[in-house]
Amino acid sequence: MKIRRKKKVLGEIPTSSTSDIAFLLLVFFLTTTKFDVKQGLGLVLPPPSQESAKRVRLQEDNIVRVLVNRDGRVALDEEELSYHELENRIRVMVRENPDLVISLRTDRQSRYRYMVEALDRLRSAGAEKISLSTN
Amino acid sequence: MAKIQGKTKPSTAIPNASMSDIAFLLLIFFMVSTVFVKERGLKVILPQGKSIEKIPRKTATTIYVDRSGVISIDDFMVEIPMVRDIMIRKLYDDFNTIASFRSDRDTDYGTMSDILNQLREANALRVSFEAKMKR
To answer: In chain B, whose CA is at the least distance from the CA of A124?
Structure first.
């Protein structure tokens, strides 16, 4: 009787799908990578006070004063109101007078977030001319 | 009679055996060449805002101010009177520099106001207050 030799099975790893795996990894990292984008509220400060010759006198009607105290309470021309009301009131005022300058006066002992909140509300209301000051 | 042999069509298959090599090469190239900005800064919790805009990272100089009033620029702890000179140097290097505040939401506004005055003296008038998008 003829004895058949056992055929040696070649141990091969299938490599046809490695490109799929590589592209899958590439696409995964491309879509999930999140870059830290800087975002914030932009503002242009007035030039230093030495240039007083360039100072422009504003008409009283064109200035509105927003005050933020140390507790974060806000007032518009000495009338206390909420941040939401402030936004609505400023929106109306800016629409009526586009040259309106808003003076945002924040207490030195107030927290930074209250000033940012007020500035954000003013920006949302469409105010362009904002000046910052403190006591 | 001689048998006319039909022309054998050349095979038009694109070899794709090396596709995975290309994909992995791309993956490794981007992994090796990507450089992340390594600025340690200070630990801060940013305030939130709605009307925030993107700040160009290339022209921004980040000023970190933590809740206890510690100031850091380019990973150096600085005192308030030093800010003016640093910003003058920054402006000399790049005229379009934007001072970007990355301040803790509970920082005293007094500290912020003093830094803003330093920026005005240095003529660095473009500022930005970094904030997170309010959801």
So the answer is: B51
% of chain B surpassing 90 pLDDT: 24
Q: What is the ipTM metric for this complex?
A: 0.73
Give contacts of A48 with chain B, Cβ < 8 Å. Answer: 120-121, 123
Q: Please return the burial class of B12, using the count of CB atoms within 10 Å of its CB with bins 0-12, 13-18 and 19+.
A: exposed
pTM of the full structure:
0.75
- H or E element at residue B132: strand B132-133
The yes-or-no verdict on residue A55 having pLDDT over 80 is no
Q: Do B106 and A111 touch (CB under 8 A)?
A: yes
pLDDT of A35 > 70? The answer is yes
For residue B129, CA distances in Å to A32, A96, B8, B69 come to 27, 28, 72, 16
Among B96, B91, B58, B90, which Cα is nearest to A37's? B58
pLDDT at A50: 60
Evaluate whether B39 touches B74 at the Cβ level (below 8 Å): yes
Q: What CATH class has B48-133?
A: alpha beta
Domain layout of chain B by residue ranges: 48-133
Q: Which fold has domain A59-134?
A: Nucleotidyltransferase; domain 5 (3.30.420)
Residue-range domain boundaries for chain A? 59-134
**SS3 of residue B58 by DSSP:** helix
Q: Closest partner residue to A45 among B52, B56, B119, by Cβ?
A: B119
Q: Does the beta-carbon distance from B121 to A47 stay under 8 Å?
A: no
Owner of token pair 């001689």? B2
